Amino acid sequence: MQRKGAVGIIQLDRPERFNALDVAMARDLRKAALQLARDPEIRCVILAGTDRVFCSGADLKYIREREHPEDFSYLQPEAREIEGGYGRSFKEILEYLHSTISEIRRAPKPFIAAVKGVAAAGGLGLAMACDLVFASDRASFEWAYSKTSLTGAESTTFLLPRLIGLRRTMEMVFLNPRLDAQQALEWGLINGIFPFETFDQEVEAVAHRLARGPTRAWAITKALINEALGIDRLDVHMAKELRHLVEIAETPDFAEGLAAFFEKREPDFRGA
């Protein structure tokens, strides 16, 4: 987390795992978003990734291997070892991510997603939850959940239909196209494209311009727009997303999708 004058910057910086989130990173992200969203000295916030990846959602390797069982001990009394499938391993990561998204939407200031590389699955949801999204000319956007037989979460099933409409949302879900920056702009997923070489400076220039603006008036306007779009129902919807993703992560299809992902082969889904 950085502060540059009245602009706060949160950087997702775990490039060795494609900026995928484990429990610790999800917890830190929520803390940073909450601090900057509620800091009266900060008038605009940038959420950024690294050069190759914005964010790829929950860390599937971490979930498969349960690398740090203590992270999940709250789910069982007396810190007993987690049993069963993968669903409960997603739970805490997504709870932190969903809380972060709620904070972004409620924040009385603009949040900008700076997507320099790939935004997929939960990373797509994080980007879409921001008020403005700018992409580099090397960025791409992908639904990606269906590759491992997961349902959508991280606000995607709520926000995407409102951003790009029903038909294009269903195309993303069923056909899973990887949209480049120009396609994302044409579809209405993002606000603009900046060259990769000057991307950071261009986004920061926009953020500082916003920070000099009438942020109190914009805060009220953002709240009214949220109300008009039914964003007050977002928390209820994300609770449903979480419940269904946890359920689907216990199924044979997800186990097969996860195995295929790491074995770099096509999954053999059975609809079960």
Describe the structure in your own words.
A 6-stranded mixed sheet has the order 1-2-3-5-7-10, with helices on both faces. It has a 4-stranded mixed sheet with strand order 4-6-8-9. The protein is built from 11 helices and 10 strands. The radius of gyration is 18 Å and the shape is globular. It is an alpha/beta fold and 272 residues long.
Helix and strand element order: EEHEEHHEEHEEHHEHEHHHH
Gross morphology: globular
- The stretches of 5 or more residues where confidence is low (pLDDT under 50) are 74-83
What proportion of the residues form beta strands (DSSP E)? Answer: 5-15%
Average of pLDDT: 93
Q: Output the number of helix runs.
A: 11
Side-by-side strand order of the widest sheet: 1-2-3-5-7-10
Number of strands: 10
What does the radius of gyration come to? Answer: 18 Å
Judged by helices, strands and strand pairing, the structural class is alpha/beta
How does the major sheet shape up?
Answer: 6 strands, mixed
Range of helix content: 40-55%
Span of the ends, CA to CA: 42 Å
